[in-house]
Amino acid sequence: MQAIAFHKLLLLLPLAFYQSTNGMEWNYLKNGKDWEDLCSSGKHQSPILLDSRTARKWVLPGITFWHYYRLLKRPFYIRNNGHSISLDIPVTSNGRKPFITGGRLKGRYYADGLHFHWGSYKSRGSEHLINKRRFDAEIHIVHRNEKYRNIAQAVRQKDGLAVVAIMVAIVRKDNAKSTPLSRLMEAVVRVPIEDSNATVFGQSSLDQLIGGVSHRDFFTYEGSLTTPLCDETVTWIVFTETTTVTMSSVSKFWLLRDHWGHRLINNYRIVQDLNNRTVFYKKRMS
Ligand SMILES: [Zn+2]
């Protein structure tokens, strides 16, 4: 109760306060149902339910992933920001920033950062649902339109951001090999509390990090950030192919703590109304 009372008190403080602090002004105890004062009440909010039967089938070009297959120059530095585990995307070994083009995007969108949403020992924690299924976790790679200098600027523009979402499924593997994703997930035990950070040693490409999932089949729609201030400036690209990890790797997330010292679990926002939006579904021709 004490935490909730303090949260209410914070709502009285000016908006700038929210943007200058991390972790303490909102949490996932109600999966976003209590963010009304923080999030705009727009009609293009995320996440949503994605349904391959009702989505508009789409014959336009796919998304092209540039420099996603090249090794990145430095290891990942991960950080517990009180809401998630996040990292900045390094440049590749030849000094290029990975970017995407195509689909319904105009121009280049540079890969800027990556973070995770997850569940708990008892529940799954993806944000989007595909054909009524919630997945164990979801990876978001946040890209910014080349027109804007940084995320802070892009987040305020209608065409500012493109987020690639990859669903994560837990599989039973008796002899699980270490992968870039499993190494990253295992490393989160070194960032147990807000503002702690660590280096994940080893080199990989962005594509290897997401387990080499197929980029060809995806949903795309116009939506919002799924964290306050829920700005409606995101073109979502949600892959239908999942990446897999073991229970042992994902379970490391369930040990993390948020700003309040609560367990940082189920850090997903509840699904939002579609309203009048069109969801596009691109499926490879076979
Ligand atoms: Zn996210």
TrEMBL record:
PROSITE patterns: ALPHA_CA_1, ALPHA_CA_2. GO terms for cellular component: cytoplasm. Residues 1-23 form the signal peptide. Residues 24-283 form the Alpha-carbonic anhydrase domain. One of its GO terms (molecular function) is zinc ion binding. It catalyses: hydrogencarbonate + H(+) = CO2 + H2O. SMART domains: Carb_anhydrase. Its EC number is 4.2.1.1. Its cofactor is Zn(2+). Gene3D superfamilies: Alpha carbonic anhydrase. InterPro entries: CA_dom, CA_dom_sf, Carbonic_anhydrase_a-class, Carbonic_anhydrase_a-class_CS. It holds the Pfam family Carb_anhydrase. Belongs to the alpha-carbonic anhydrase family. Reversible hydration of carbon dioxide. PANTHER family: CARBONIC ANHYDRASE. This is Carbonic anhydrase. It comes from Drosophila melanogaster.
